[in-house]
Amino acid sequence: MFEKALPLLNSYFGYSSFRNGQEQAIRSVLDGNNTICVMPTGGGKSICYQIPALVLPGTTIVISPLISLMKDQVDALIQAGISATFINSSLSYSEANERIRDAKQGKYKLLYIAPERLESYDFIEDLKNMVIPLVAVDEAHCISQWGHDFRPSYRHIQQMINSLPQRPNVLALTATATPRVRDDICKLLNIDDRNTIITGFERENLSFSVIKGQDRLKYMLDYLKKNEHEAGIIYAATRKNVDQLYEKLKKEKINVARYHAGMSDIDRAREQERFLEDKASVMIATSAFGMGIDKSNIRYVVHYQMPKNMESYYQEAGRAGRDGLESECIMLYSPQDVQVQRFLIDQSSDRSRITQELEKLQQMADYCHTENCLQEFILKYFGETETKSCGRCGNCLDSRTSIDVTKEAQMVMSCVIRMGQRFGKNITAQVLTGSKNKKVIDMGFERLTTYGIMKDQGAKEVSDFIEFLISQELIAIEQGQFPTIYVSPKGKDVLLGKQPVFRREAVKVKQVSKNDPLFEELRDVRRRIAETEKVPPFVIFSDAAIKDMSAKLPKTNEEFLQVSGVGEHKLKKYGLEFIQSIRAFLEAYPDYQSECDSDSQAVKKPAKKAVRDSHLETYSLYKNNLSPNDIAEKRELSTKTVEEHLILCAQQGMEVDFAKFIPDEYIPLLEKAVAEAGRNRLKPIKELLPEEVSYFMIKAYLYFLSKNK
Ligand code: ADP
Q1: Nearest atom within ligand 1 for CA of residue 138
Q2: Could you tell me the distance, in angstroms and rounded to a whole number, from the CA of residue 225 to the centre of ligand 1?
Q3: CA 695, CA 689: separation in Å to the nearest integer?
Q4: I want to staple 469 with a disulfide (CB 3.0 to 4.6 A). Which of 196, 439, 475, 589 is the partner?
């Protein structure tokens, strides 16, 4: 039976090969074994039951605890041309009945249900009248009390299976299972543990980093500006943090949505939708957000504060890059977070777990402090033994130089001591920089010998430096109504000259993925289709598929089928629209070569180089004072192409005076349009402007803005 699997993968899902673990899982299921499959998020677990569902006769039941996920998964299957539906509490009584009737007639290949359904006698009776070859148990760790999301209704699964006239196979799937949880799953679902498929927890497309001793708000704002075209999540510890950051980001004209348990159901649903539909690019949320979020094109997850344990961290951070494209997971660490989490644990009602939770918190803090590979730290935490450095995380790639800051550290700490170790970070910085602030004078701090000894620096800079000393645990914080700082025992060693202090340069903000105008264009096409079809854009095509399109530039149906993620059904439904857009784009930009990395690039690499040279050639003519029109004429290119070249040059750091290309009278109009439409997408800006203001002028203006902030 397995020989049918690959052709089905290809024709329905448009993928040319199985990923690690998928083939073994599918073989095991088709051989009639109860099976458990442990794969990281984004590993491709769904295919492990969707392909057997297509091969086997009858209807595969999928048990999933997440109502919101069910709809997206079913929508995605329908988009691929597979008959599927779900039954859960979001349906009315008559809707559910209708679906059950259709299911009994064998209308669906896959039926998704919430575990609570299994508690209904009538529903089990209905199942008895269906042909059910396979029961897939998603998030199977929910069956175990040792897991972090125990769901009692999962305990009804085996009962249901036993009651069916023809006993189906079981496939249990999970991303987070320690050996103890795995044992539980096998025992409770009657799986022989020899039928275990584990692919390891590594996420090869994620790069982790920890930023410490830096101003986190500033870091985050820089990061968001640099990655404004990408979708990402920012996790903050409390509702209040979320609200505060939300307001700050809005003020910066960042297209942000928010989510926390203090909001009404309607507000939360609206905000979530805006994010899922790519209408807001950033979601700022507490840990309440994310369960059941299947959005595959999340390019970054930033933790504004540290979560309480590694399980939560990996789960939240793991929401980045489900589509397999490179993505970043950034932790903005400050030692105060440990104290906040410790406080929350102390407050929690379950006294018996406090020691265990504090231990987990300590490991979380260790992650923030390790200088070794971060991905490897995580893998070891989850019990993997054969690990190696990932070569892509912040620690593996850290090439910053360290400078000796022992003297400055001693100045700060001696000032803290002279101030009586009873004051906060900011006033200490003011004293060190010689501020004439009323409080400083009132307290008589200007008489201290350390007053003004760092006056060559700004108070903000010194305050950041104190933050760095806190991150090194040389200075500690006493929590209270106003947190105060004091010198730790380790800090005293530095004061006594027993220990030097080194500080690395600040970490620079990176761009997760390169700009590619065709990729943006195709995302717009996808967004339009998604709006008409009333599904989130990633259900139409993943970013990975769009990226592959802008790399392979398909111009015929056959070529379009070669794109990863395009199956026959999607070719029929959307092929024409995408192919036409690609053709139109290539006519407008005949010189275009994709910036995307793709397997298919092997043949195109030389051409790519030619483009590099091409825009440099344009640049040298520009430097000789030729206008874009003149350059276009001379080089027999379209003006549009020349304009694209100049933008590319600027992006690569060459000097281009864009102000020259925008007639003065358009500046106020552009200013107004950008204020209204935001900077995220060009089209809404263009729509607010007179026809003659070109995309180039808009891009030039935005570039000009970003340089002159
Ligand atoms: P998980 O449930 O393990 O988190 P998914 O089943 O959602 O992962 O799959 C993650 C992504 O990988 C999806 O976008 C899916 O379409 C893609 N994918 C799955 N299998 C393959 C494959 N064999 N080749 C290419 N992409 C795949």
Answers
A1: 2
A2: 29
A3: 10
A4: 475
Per-residue pLDDT reduced to its tens digit, 354-404: 888 888 898 899 899 888 899 999 998 887 888 888 899 998 888 787 789
Whether ligand 1 lies within 6 angstroms of the CB of 176 is answered as: no
Helix/strand/coil for 525: helix
Q: How far does the centroid of ligand 1 lie from the alpha carbon of residue 167, in Å?
A: 28
Res 654 pLDDT > 80: no
Quote the ligand 1 centre to 174 CA distance (angstroms).
14
Q: From edge to edge, which strands make up the β-sheet containing 327-333?
A: 206-212, 327-333, 298-303, 231-235, 282-285, 256-259
Task: Please report, for the chain, how many H helices and E strands are present, in that order.
Answer: 31, 17
Length of the chain: 709
Alpha carbon of 539 to ligand 1 centroid (Å): 12
Terminal CA-CA length for the chain: 62
Q: What's the per-residue H, E or C state across 651-662? A: HCCCCCCHHHHC
Does the CB atom of residue 296 touch ligand 1 within 6 A? yes
For a mutational test of ligand 1's pocket, the pick from 13, 38, 66, 540, i.e. the residue with the most ligand atoms closer than 8 A to its C-beta, is: 13
Pocket test for ligand 1, best of 15, 17, 54 (most atoms within 8 A of CB): 15
What is the Cα–Cα distance from 430 to 412, expressed in whole angstroms?
11
| CA dist list (Å): 336 to 340, 485, 667 | 6, 11, 45
Is the shortest distance between the CB of 425 and ligand 1 below 6 Å? no
In this predicted model, what pLDDT tens digit does every residue of 269-313 receive, in sequence order?
999 999 998 899 999 999 989 877 778 899 999 999 999 889 889
pLDDT digits (tens, 9 = 90+) for 222-270: 999 999 889 999 999 999 999 999 999 999 999 999 999 999 999 999 9
Output the average pLDDT for the chain: 88
- Which residue's alpha carbon is at the smallest distance from atom 10 of ligand 1? 42
**pLDDT one-digit tens code per residue, 512-560:** 877 788 998 999 999 999 999 888 899 999 999 999 999 999 999 999 9
Atom of ligand 1 nearest to the CA of 40: 3
Q: Does residue 45 register a pLDDT over 60?
A: yes
> Cα separation of 450 and 452, whole Å?
6
CA distances, 218 to each of 34, 320, 401, 478, 518 (Å): 51, 22, 22, 25, 31
Token representation of residue 370: 């390790």
- Identify the structural domains of the chain with CATH numbers, from first to last: 2-198 (3.40.50.300), 206-381 (3.40.50.300), 402-504 (1.10.10.10), 514-602 (1.10.150.80)
Token pair of 157 as six digits: 């699964």
Indicate the top mutation candidate among 8, 19, 540 to test ligand 1's pocket, ranked by most ligand atoms within 8 A of CB.
19
Q: Closest Cα to atom 17, ligand 1: which residue?
A: 44
Answer whether 0.85 is exceeded by the pTM: no
Banded pLDDT at 128 (limits 50, 70, 90):
very high
Q: How far is the CA of 43 from the centre of ligand 1 (A)?
A: 6
